[in-house]
């Protein structure tokens, strides 16, 4: 129940005597009170799902330990999709989760950029770290949440530069940042090694096509705004053509 509804219902729950004005209280003639009855609302109350909890301590412990769908799990997303009637509800929920995680990472990097005064996108700059990190998180989340068949992601980055000699430092930085973002969000209880990070980047090498299902990603759309601490976008779309 939202606050607006609570505000409307609140006064209706008061005893009838409490609603009498001061003029009625000052009257010498007592007025008979109407029989107590439940107030009639001009709108139906929303349905709130209920469940009966066990009364015994052993049953209560078993109830508390019952398996529950993890927040954002594929099973829960599928249930929400069926309940909403939107055939793409699961994909939309997964996309929101993926972009939210990517935004967490980008926000942390952007703050470092603004404080350090970086104004370009050199090969090993924090902007590149954010590009890779954003693409990695989106790729990982989509594969874990909604990839039931061939996974196709058309994105910007590949792992070629990170596999070269001398790229160990930036690869380690990206790996640490991705794992830290996942851990801080509480979304998954997993940690990725460097090879898993490189593989997630290369998942974005799809060429797409005129048929099938393809995710399309720009990990940071608006680099100039990003380095200035201004607006940018993590642009993600789903193309579905049978």
Question: Could you explain the architecture of this structure?
Answer:
It is a single chain. With 242 residues, this protein is mainly alpha-helical. The chain has a domain of 168 residues: Fructose-1,6-Bisphosphatase, subunit A, domain 1 (Fructose-1,6-Bisphosphatase, Chain A, domain 1, 2-Layer Sandwich), CATH 3.30.540.10. The chain is built from 9 helices and 3 strands; from the N terminus they run ααααααβααβαβ. The protein has a 3-stranded mixed β-sheet with strand order 1-2-3. Helix 6 packs across helix 8. The longest helix has 28 residues. The protein is globular, with a radius of gyration of 27 Å. The two termini are 42 Å apart. The N terminus is likely disordered.
**Percent of residues in beta strands?**
5-15%
* Helix count from the secondary structure assignment: 9
Q: Structural class, judged by helices and strands? A: mainly alpha
Q: What would you give as the CATH superfamily of the domain at 74-241?
A: Fructose-1,6-Bisphosphatase, subunit A, domain 1
Brief overview, please?
The protein has 242 residues and is mostly helical. The protein is built from 9 helices and 3 strands, in the order ααααααβααβαβ.
Keywords:
3 strands; 9% strand; 46% helix; Fructose-1,6-Bisphosphatase, Chain A, domain 1; mainly alpha; 3-stranded mixed beta sheet; 242 residues
List the helices and strands and how they pair.
Elements: H1 3-9, H2 22-26, H3 57-64, H4 74-84, H5 89-116, H6 126-145, E1 153-154, H7 168-185, H8 194-202, E2 212-221, H9 223-228, E3 233-241
Parallel strand pairs: 1-2
Antiparallel strand pairs: 2-3
Helix pairs in contact: 4-5, 5-6, 5-7, 6-7, 6-8
């Amino acid at each position: 129940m939202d606050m607006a509804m609570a505000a409307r219902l609140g006064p209706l729950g008061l005893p009838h005597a409490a609603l009498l004005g001061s003029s009625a209280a000052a009257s010498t003639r007592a007025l008979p009170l109407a029989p107590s009855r439940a107030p009639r609302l001009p709108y139906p109350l929303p349905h709130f799902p209920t469940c009966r909890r066990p009364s015994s301590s052993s049953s209560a412990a078993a109830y508390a330990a019952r398996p529950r769908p993890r927040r954002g799990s594929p099973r829960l997303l599928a249930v929400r999709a069926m309940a909403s009637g939107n055939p793409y509800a699961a994909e939309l929920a997964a996309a929101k989760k993926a972009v939210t995680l990517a935004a967490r990472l980008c926000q942390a990097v952007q703050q470092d950029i603004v404080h350090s005064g970086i104004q370009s996108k050199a090969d090993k700059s924090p902007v590149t770290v954010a590009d890779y990190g954003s693409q990695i998180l989106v790729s990982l989340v989509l594969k874990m949440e909604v990839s039931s068949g061939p996974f196709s992601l058309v994105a910007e980055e590949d792992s070629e530069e990170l596999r070269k000699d001398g790229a160990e430092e930036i690869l380690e930085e990206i790996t640490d940042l991705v794992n830290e973002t996942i851990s801080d969000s509480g979304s998954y209880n997993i940690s990725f090694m460097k090879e898993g990070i490189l593989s997630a980047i290369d998942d974005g090498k799809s060429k797409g096509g005129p048929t099938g299902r393809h995710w399309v990603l720009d990990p940071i759309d608006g680099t100039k705004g990003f380095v200035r601490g201004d607006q940018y976008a993590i642009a993600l779309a789903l193309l579905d053509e049978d």
